[in-house]
Amino acid sequence: MDNFTFYNPTKIDFGTGKEQLIGQHLAEHGIRKVLLCFGSYRIKRDGLFEAVSKSLAAHDIEFIEFGSIVSNPLLSKVRDGIALARGHQVGAVLSVGGGSVLDSSKAIAAGVPYQGDVWDLFIGKADIVSALPVFSILTLAATGSEMNSGAVVTNEATKEKFAIQSVHTYPRVSIVNPALMQTVSRDYLVYSAADIIAHCIEGYFTATVQPTLHSRMVEALINTVIDTTETLLDNPADYAARAEFAWASTQALNGLIYAGTAGFSYPNHMIEHALSALFNVPHGAGLSVIMPAWMKWYHGRNPAQFQRLAQYVFGVDTPQQGIAALEAWFDKMGTPTRLSQLGIGEADLPAITDNVLGNAKWFGIADIYSRDVVATILRNAL
Amino acid sequence: MDNFTFYNPTKIDFGTGKEQLIGQHLAEHGIRKVLLCFGSYRIKRDGLFEAVSKSLAAHDIEFIEFGSIVSNPLLSKVRDGIALARGHQVGAVLSVGGGSVLDSSKAIAAGVPYQGDVWDLFIGKADIVSALPVFSILTLAATGSEMNSGAVVTNEATKEKFAIQSVHTYPRVSIVNPALMQTVSRDYLVYSAADIIAHCIEGYFTATVQPTLHSRMVEALINTVIDTTETLLDNPADYAARAEFAWASTQALNGLIYAGTAGFSYPNHMIEHALSALFNVPHGAGLSVIMPAWMKWYHGRNPAQFQRLAQYVFGVDTPQQGIAALEAWFDKMGTPTRLSQLGIGEADLPAITDNVLGNAKWFGIADIYSRDVVATILRNAL
C-alpha cells in the first residue's frame, strides 16, 4: 500500500426529513446569511425549497437565491455567483441540488475570497488558501461531490472542463435524503449509475498500487449500484434501494477506495469531459459510452484486475466477457454505449480527439494517451 | 437504511516513516506540551521512542512521560494520568502504542477538564463536554481506536470493563505505520485478527436493519483479515499484507460499516469483557473463544446472514459449516477457541455469568441475555 493521508471532515446527515435540519446546521456554524444555489425549479415544485426556507427562517438565517445552474456547470455562472455572494456578504454557500449545483457552489465559495479570476484556481495559476464554508442538500446521487473537496466546471469560452480540489472546499455538512431523489428521471438514474461505476473503476484498473482490500470494496460498491439500479427502475419508490444507491455513490468518491492506491488516473473522465464540453452530453451518458470502448483498448494492460471484475461482479470467466457484460448491462438499463446514441458521428472524432489531448496534459497522462490511442478508443465507441 | 449522521474528523497519516511527522502535526495544532502515554518498553527498544522524541524536539514540544499502561487498561492508571496531565498543564495527550494506550489516552483527555471522578463519564453520571486533544502513533492494529471516539477501561475495584464515546475524543491525528507493527508477537497478531473480525460481525449478525452494501463491506474486511493474517504468519515482514491488515482494522470500527444499520448490539464483546475483567484474558483471545460459542447459539435468529458468511467468506454451503469454518480457522491460526485454553473451567462459569449479566444492562441487551442464555453460550465454549 502506498503512503497516504486520509482526512474527510464532512459531516453527512443522511435520511428522511433531514433537509429540515439545514437551518440548525448553519446556525451551529454561526452562519447568518447564505447564497442559496440551485438548478432547476424541480426543487420549488417538489416542496424542497419551501422546507429549506422554513428551516432557515426558523433560525433567522437570511438567504439570497441563485438559481438556474445547469448540468456541466459553467464558469460564467460561477463568476456571477461570486459577484452576488460578495455583494451580499454572505457567510456561506448552500447548495440545494445535484453535483453540478454543488460543484458550482464550491467554486463560488473558493472564488469569493480570491482576488483574481476564479479560473486561475482551475488552471493552477493560484492556490486555494481559503473559501466560504459550503453546505449542501443533495437531490441526485452520482458525483460524490457531497463528501469530497472536488468541483468540476466548464469554461465555455475555451471548451475546457477542469476541476479544483482543496481542503477548504469539503462541505461542512451534506444532507442526503434518498427520498428527495425519487423524482429523478429514469434517464438520470442510469446516467448516475454509470457515473458511480466510473468513479469505482478508474482507480481499480489504472492504479499501479491497488491493494486487494480496495478492489473488494470497489466490487462491493459496483455490485450494490447494479442491484439497486435494477430495483429502482422497477420501483422508483423503493426507499431502501434508493438509500443504498445514494450511500454507494458517496463512498465511491469520498477518498476511501483511493487511499493507499497509487499511480491511478482518470482516462474515462478525461475523454468524457471532451464530450460534455463540446456536445453538452450528460456526464454519465458520456461515461457509459466511453467505458466499454476504453476497456476494450486497455484490458491487456491489467488482465488480473479485469479478471476480478468479470468474476466478482458479473460471474463470468474472462476479461472480455466481463467487459461485454458491463456493456450489455448498460444497454439493458438504457444508458447509451455508442457515440451515435449521443448524436456524435465519425466526422466529430477529430475535434473530440483535439479536446481530449488538451485535457490529457491536465490529467497528467499525455504520455499514454497519444492521438492514435484516443482515436482508437473513440472508434471503439462508434 | 436507517437515518444516520456520519462524522469522523480524524486525520489518518498512514505509511512508512510517518511517526517522524508527529512533531509537525502537534505544532500545526498549536500544541507546546504533551503527556506522552505508552505501554511496554518495546517502543524504547525498537527506536520508536527516540524517533518521537526527536520529532517533538525539532518542533520545541515538551513531553511528560507516562508509561507502563497495560492491556485491558486500568481506571487507576487513568486517574494517575489525569493527575499528571493536570500537574504539568499539558495541551494534549499523545498515545504511542496499541489500543490500550490509546483508550487510556482518550480517557485521560476526557478526564482532565472534568471536575469529578473520570469513572462518572463511563457510568453515565456525567457527559463529556470537552477533552484535551488526542494524537496517536499506533503500534498494534486491532481495536480501531485510532479512528473512532471510543475508549474501554477496566475498573479493577468493581471488575467492570466499560466504555466512553464522545465527539471530543476522536484523535485529531493518528499515525499508522504498518512497519512499526512487524515486531508484534505471533500471538497478538492472531488475537488482533479475532478482534477485527469481532468488530465486523457484531453488527453484521445482530442488526435489525443491515443493508446489503454494508454486508459486502464487512465481507471485504473479513476476507482481507483472513488473507493477510495467513500471509503475515508466514512472513511477518510482508509490508503490503501488514498495511492491508492495519487499514482493514481501522475501517472495521471507524463507523462506516455501522452507518445506516440499526438495532445492532455487541454481545460477543459483552461476554468477553467479563473474561478480561475477571481473568485478564487478552481481549482478542477471549473473543475467538466466545464468537463460535455465541454463533452456535445465535445463528437461527438470522440464518440469511449466516448463510452470507458461509458463502462469501468461507465458500461453504450452510450456516453451520460457516461457523465451523471460522472456528477451524481460529484453531489453525493458533488463537484459542475453548475456555480451557484460557485456563477457565466449568467452576468459573457462575462468576463469569454474573459479570456478564452486570454488563448486559450497560450493553442494553439484558432482555435477550438472561442467565440461562449466557450459561448456554459459555457452556458452548467449554
TrEMBL record, chains A, B:
Q: Which residues form the Alcohol dehydrogenase iron-type/glycerol dehydrogenase GldA domain?
A: 9-178
**Domain Fe-containing alcohol dehydrogenase-like C-terminal: from-to ranges:** 190-381
Q: What is this protein called?
A: Iron-containing alcohol dehydrogenase
Single Gene Ontology MF annotation: metal ion binding
Which GO terms of the cellular component aspect does the record hold?
Answer: cytosol
Q: Name one Pfam family in it.
A: ADH_Fe_C
Give the similarity note: Belongs to the iron-containing alcohol dehydrogenase family.
Query: Which InterPro entries does its entry note?
Result: ADH_Fe/GldA (IPR001670), ADH_Fe_C (IPR056798), BDH-like (IPR044731)
CDD domains to which the protein is assigned, alphabetical: BDH
* Keyword annotations of the record: Oxidoreductase
Protein's organism: Pseudogulbenkiania ferrooxidans 2002
